[in-house]
Fold this protein.
Amino acid sequence: MASFVRFTLDGKTCLAEEGAQLVAAAREAGVFIPTLCNYPGIPPKGACRICTVLVNGIPQTACTTKVAEDMNVATSTPELEAFRKSVVEILFAEGNHLCPSCERSGNCELQALAYRYRVTVSSFPYLFPKRDVEAWHPKLVKDHNRCIQCKRCIRGIHNAEGHAIFAFGKRGDKVVINIDPDTSKDIDDELAQRAMDICPVGAILRKGKGFDVPIGRRTYDRAPIGSEVRP
Amino acid sequence: MSAKAPKKIVATTSLAGCFGCHMSLLDIDERILDLIELVEFNKSPFDDIKTFTKECDIGLIEGGCCNDENVHVLTEFRKRCKVLVAVGECALMGGLPALRNVLPLKECLEEAYLNGPTVADGNPDKIIPHDPDLPKILNRVYPCHEVVKIDYFLPGCPPSADLIWDALVALVTGQELDPSYRSFKFD
Amino acid sequence: MPAIAQTVKQVVARYGGDATRLMDVLIDVQDELGCLSHVTAARIADVLGIPQVDVEQTTSFYHFFAREPRGKFAVYLNDSVVAEFCGRAEVAQAFEEAAGCKFGEVSADGVVGLFHTACIGMSDQEPAALVNGQVFPKLTPEKARELVAGMRAGRTVEELKGDQYGDGQNAHPEVRALVHNHVRRRGVMVFDHYRPGEALAKVVKMSSGEVIAAVKAASVRGRGGAGFPTGMKWDFARRAAGDVKYVFCNADEGEPGTFKDRVILTERPQMVIEGMAIAAFAVGARRGVLYVRHEYLYLRAYLEHVLADLRAQGLLGTAIGGLAGFDFDVSLQFGGGAYVCGEESALIESAEGKRGEPRDRPPFPVEKGYLQKPTVVNNVETLCSAVQVLLKGPEWYNRLGTEKSKGTKVLCVSGDCDRPGIYEVEWGFSVNDILKEAGARDVQAVQVGGPSGACIGPDEFNRVLAYEDLATGGSFIVVGKHRDLLKDVVLNFARFFREESCGSCVPCRALTGMAQVVLERIVAGKGTAEDVERLRAWQKIMRNNRCGLGQTALNPIVTTIQNFRPLYAARLAPGDPRFVPSFDLAAAIRDYDAAVGKG
């Protein structure tokens, strides 16, 4: 049996399994730490930075941090909350996010976080980048306008041989997620659906799917993101 | 609020919008009776007053700027209204009209007037309209806050009637707006 | 097509079909085929047995890997701040006129390709360009025209170079570079008398613990800029579990204005490699990797030659210094053109054939580094310091420098001064001291530590170079009073960071570009006081990026707002605060007028 470690979370003493990811341990303890690039079951990659917390006073991403004995974690200072709001606003200004026309609206994690932080307009300059919509794949559509480069698809979706289907291309603000024509060739509907589900926004769509839950009954119409985590 | 307090004067306009935000305001249902107790409309499609007849307290802007006339109207609103509120996705960040922002204007115009499948034989002289009476199209659609200072923003496509109502009440009574989760949506 | 297949097969075989050697494969294949086309990349993926997208993610990350043909001669003209100071614009124009194409294009006859590139480590001899990997320093418009004419006349790069090689080992038969060392001040650490193997002879008589104790006693700190205690790093790696460990030397100096590694690798490569061997002895590593930036590929044959010499002398290989069991060898690894690879974990990723994205820490490289094994990564200059400490003792070392910064620092002085070049000084020299030695007058500002450091004005020139005051990795750029600091310097740096961000962390990926947008607005006289405050506030957001690049990318902007505020204030748009000055109606309707023929 795994041993437990004791740590402090927002002033409260908590227990967690040794080596547990801080995001998951906090969730267990009833504290919601917002995430975007994190996804249960796939290796973390502190890319979006939104889960930044203070670990013994030092900013660190909770998705890449393992709980350790005597760790003192602050998850929700005014500075951290302001930072998280900024990350959401940056993402809205960096890409082309037109919620009213997006298949994922209402089920989108980015949008749900914007609701959480009551983002109205982005305080960052809207860049209106020229990005493509790729529809050559028989089962998938990749709308780069909406992509937030979280890499969840890169890390979480592999074909039957275990090869990557998605990968980053280029760098900096030109970064783009590419689909491999060979390794993605024979994916079935189930994997295509998984790719769509793993995307936090509406950047990966399964062809022939979308808008199947009416407005008012979508995930984040029903309840705010994180509300399932209760102290 | 004291009964003697003068009514706040409100102006509204739709720039590059679809009037959906105006419709949503009308969706406040019977509260519209309360509203006219609180405010008086000046320049607005609601009362068909075409030009400002006095200084206003609140200006509600629907839509972003896609042509020089939008810019002109928005500038006028900024000059005549103490407080400007951007209402809806288009006013906030361009909205659906801003889909064209990733394309050069020339391509858009050529698609619309010369080469698009719906043009067919409808434009035998191959003219992109440019009558002096027509507004000039901007190189891209601009969110309102990129043209003038905007004081408040109401998201939604359209913003829900509740959100617009709550915002107006907050503005008129000078209270902080604390929108409910239900009323705060981007679609 | 058969040529592609054949080349790829040969090159992949050269590296044992090992996908972690992708960087080497890409460099060699591009060298033979001119570019890495889609077809070539697909073939490489096929032969290595990895997905195409995995090859492309690496290829497309690095500046010098090209998908399209770059012309018979690929000219990469440096566009750093100092290059611009030295008349780069005129040289660029001459290249364009002579070649008949713009930058980013290849001439119609396929002979000349013109490309921009970030600082190539020649700030003391700008404007400089790389032509098919060879350095052409001190360019003038006339020379640019001559070069293009020579290319068109069918001459080779060697013929274009001529034979006026630079000083010291730049003239070595394996180098034959037009580059000059410009060592203006020789210090005791790097540029003093040195004989390969002397330090190792002492080391083999010590225990690894004693070696680390000596380095710790001398409080040697990393010279790349961050200043981490070297002895501690070695100790961590020594204690880390596992038999297989690695020693890396970081010669990926990409900070604009830095060129010390180039000079040290030219004049003292043996010392650097001896330092690696000492580190290997201390931590128990058998393999070392000297990671050199792509821009210094012209040193490849020479460095291979030096490694072979050291093997022949018994300073690399098995039973080094006659000590049975002390086995260590070093291989070269070249980068592909990415500043961020100077960050140690990004450098390791790159050496593994991947995108140079910094890793999340912990684990640190000393625990899990190259191929997940404990890895020490040390700067070129740090390793030289270690050699001297072992040779002359910690007491000698500790007599140099200040209380908290021991030893010397190799500075790379460039910009508006009479004597740009290398100055090895003890820590504790003031900015004024350096300016005087370098012959700088009418100085408006000094960028210390490169763009990720600080930009300071004359009232701070009495500050000293030391970890406790002005820390620096070596770059020292002098900006004269006649320069437009915001436009010529700060904006150039902003562009640099935008291009060099790896794109992984949201704040760095987006805000480097957004900061450029806002800064351009301010420079154009259309910014507001709010814009200035906004830039300052963004710095806070950037603090939460994963690596040093992201955390410091707004430093050029923020330190100049702090130290040169009047320059910003003077540029702010006047007028009614109810209107946004950057909105320009006349400009916004220009496209329409043109489209309807009224332009």
User: Anything to note?
Assistant: The helical segments of chain B are 20-26, 31-38, 68-80, 89-93, 105-115, 161-173. The first strand of chain B starts at residue 8 and ends at 14. The domain at 8-100+140-183 of chain B is CATH 3.40.50.700 (Rossmann fold).
